[in-house]
Structures are given as C-alpha cells and as structure tokens.
Design a protein that fits this description.
The protein is of the alpha/beta class and 339 residues long. The protein folds into two domains: 2-162 and 324-334, Rossmann fold (3-Layer(aba) Sandwich), CATH 3.40.50; 171-319, Rossmann fold (3-Layer(aba) Sandwich). 38% of the residues lie in helices and 17% in strands. Strand 12, helix 10 (264-271) and strand 13 (276-278) form a beta-alpha-beta unit. Helix 4 (108-116) runs antiparallel to helix 5 and helix 10 (264-271) crosses helix 13 (312-319). The protein is globular and about 60 Å long.
Length: 339
C-alpha cells in the first residue's frame, strides 16, 4: 500500500507524536508499504508556533499537498494533527472527494478548562468538526474511545501504542553500567518529556520527596521553572541510548500530566525497568490498569514513594507485551483505501 501522511508534527520536533509516526513508518516500510510524509520541511515558508518557538508551523500555500497527492498517487491518506498542514490536507481531500483517516493526539479542551476554567466545549467542537470530516478516526485507548464517542466523534477505530524494547532497555542489567553516573543523591525521581505548561510539572516539583528530582527534556516553560525550582536538575534533551541510560539510572519515573492521550514515556520508562508514579487519569490508567508496575494515585507524593518498592524486572517484562508490529498492522488495517 502507498500511504501518504500529511502531518504538522515531524522531525526535527521532539515529541510523542513525532516518535509514534517515525516508529510506525519504519514498521510500515518493513511490512512492504511505501510511505510519503508531507511535513513542515516540504513548505517554503514556516513560522514559529505561538508559545512554542522551536515548533515550526507551515504556511501551506503553493499546492504542495495537491502536488504530493498527484505525484505519489497514494492508496490511503492519513492526517494526524489539526494544524495548518492538517487543515489544508483535509480541505484537499474533501474537495476532491478522497477518503482520509485522522487520529487523536491532544486533550486540548481539558487542558484549557484546567487553566482558564472554560473553552472545553469550543475546543472539542473544533476537533469534532475536523475529525468527523474523515472516514476513520483513530484513538489510542478504550477510555478515549468512550469519552470521544460521548462527545459526538464518529467512525472511531482503535490504534494502540507500544515501545521499542531494543532501544529502551534496562541498562542496570549490564554489569558495566554505572547506575550512579549522574552523581545525584538517591532516590532519583525522573521526568522525561516536553517542558511546557500542559505537562503541569510544578505538581511534581512541589512534592516533598527525598533524594533528587531530574528532568530530561526541554520546552518553553523551562526557564520559568528552573528559576522557580532551583533544586530540580534540568538536563535538556537526550536521545537514543543516552536517553535509555538516564531512564535506567532513575529510581522512579514521575508523570504529573493529567492531559495525555496515552503517555508513551510511561511505556519507555517501564521498558528500562523504571517503575512509574502517575495520576489515575486516561493514558497512564489505560497502560497500567491494575498491574503492579506503577502506582496511580491522586496523591502523587505517596505514589512516588510507593513506586520505589516495585520490582524492576517486572516492569520490563510488562513492557515487552506491547508490540509495535501489532500496532502498525492495526494502523494499516484502519486506513480507508482511495481505490
């Protein structure tokens, strides 16, 4: 199958959506599919996203998407993100009566409500308009499927997530690995991901916890949070095996976000053998459920302290049950053929 993906989220951006589609693309191509990604780099002009200057938004003019469809002749089209490229691709597909699928990656309406007290209905209405214009709408978890169906989203199809267990591995199993290479007092409480307002990192930083707090990642809120919480160690982005080393060195992965659609970093932490402390919200709750590899609680401090007692080998074994090959076949099966 020839698959065209038109996405505002693409490298060099560093986020979960980019990682998901990079991994999915590799597996699709390994299965014999041909994939064409249309992203911001394909457009002559881009501008920084408001509040996120490292994210470039394309100005989707000049017929780039139509030309890609003509030249590539896809068998299926997928539009992941409701940004300028996504809107332009949706418009082209609707005008040319081409079927397309889309997927859900942000709980923007819930985040708005938490920060300013309103906006949920408007945000979900905009997302509903975008996704209901397609022929298939992919969501990650049973919880999201129920919640979005109740909000009027249609044509919902499940598309799960997994973790690359070769890339994310428990380095502590390697006798040559120095688990104390960070030189920080233990226990080490780690967060990995975007440093931005919607991640509500202050909920983690304000906790009275022994040892150290460590952040691997970057984003627009970093300078403000570093100034407000000088005891927290910010290391910036880490990639590949270096990222897995840092996760493996931590004692607990603390995930303070309440607005995730899944939380891929939760699985990546478990794959490195590091137990998780999180709120009992969609995403972490769907991953962990009643499994003893993390602690879900409205009291995040209690969750972090309890997670210290969790068996690391069990975390790794649980992560190994999530298969990207299976998820990719699920994605391909959800696509709607053009012809």
């Amino acid at each position: 199958m020839r698959i065209l993906i038109a996405s505002d989220a693409a490298a060099p951006q560093v986020n979960g959506v980019v990682r998901v589609f990079e991994t999915t693309r590799r597996h699709l191509e390994a299965d014999g599919h041909v994939v064409r990604l249309v992203g911001p780099a394909d457009f002559a002009r881009t501008i920084p996203a408001p509040g996120y200057p490292e994210v470039r938004l394309a100005l989707p003019f000049g017929g780039v998407i139509e030309a890609a469809i003509e030249d590539f002749a896809p068998d299926a089209i997928h539009i992941p993100v409701e940004g300028p490229i996504g809107l332009a691709a949706r418009h082209v597909c609707r005008r040319r009566k081409l079927p397309f699928t889309s997927s859900f990656h942000t709980r923007f309406g819930d985040y708005l409500a938490s920060r300013i007290g309103f906006g949920t209905g408007l945000a979900y209405a905009a997302q509903r308009w975008f996704h209901n214009g397609g022929d298939g709408f992919m969501v990650q978890t049973p919880t999201l499927e129920r919640q979005l169906a109740a909000r009027g989203f249609r044509n919902i199809r499940r598309w799960g997530r997994a973790v690359d267990t070769a890339a994310f591995r428990p380095h502590r199993d390697d006798p040559a690995f120095d688990a104390d290479f960070l030189g920080l007092p233990r226990p080490i409480h780690l967060y990995v991901g975007r440093v931005s307002a919607e991640k509500t990192l202050e909920r983690f930083f304000e906790l009275d916890l022994p040892g150290s707090k460590l952040v691997v990642g970057d984003g627009p809120a970093r300078a403000k949070l570093e100034a407000a919480f000088p005891a927290v160690h910010f290391l910036g982005y880490k990639h590949g095996d270096d990222l897995a080393r840092h996760i493996s060195a931590a004692d607990v992965f603390v995930f303070p976000s309440r607005f995730e659609t899944f939380g891929l970093v939760v699985l990546e932490s478990l794959a490195c053998g590091t137990p998780v402390a999180a709120y009992p919200v969609p995403g972490p709750a769907d991953i962990l459920g009643g499994q003893p590899h993390g602690v879900l609680s409205q009291d995040l401090r209690a969750a972090a302290l309890s997670a210290l007692e969790i068996d690391r080998a069990g975390c790794r074994a649980f992560a190994e049950t999530f298969s990207w090959a299976d998820c990719t076949r699920q994605f391909a099966g959800n696509l709607v053929p053009i012809r």
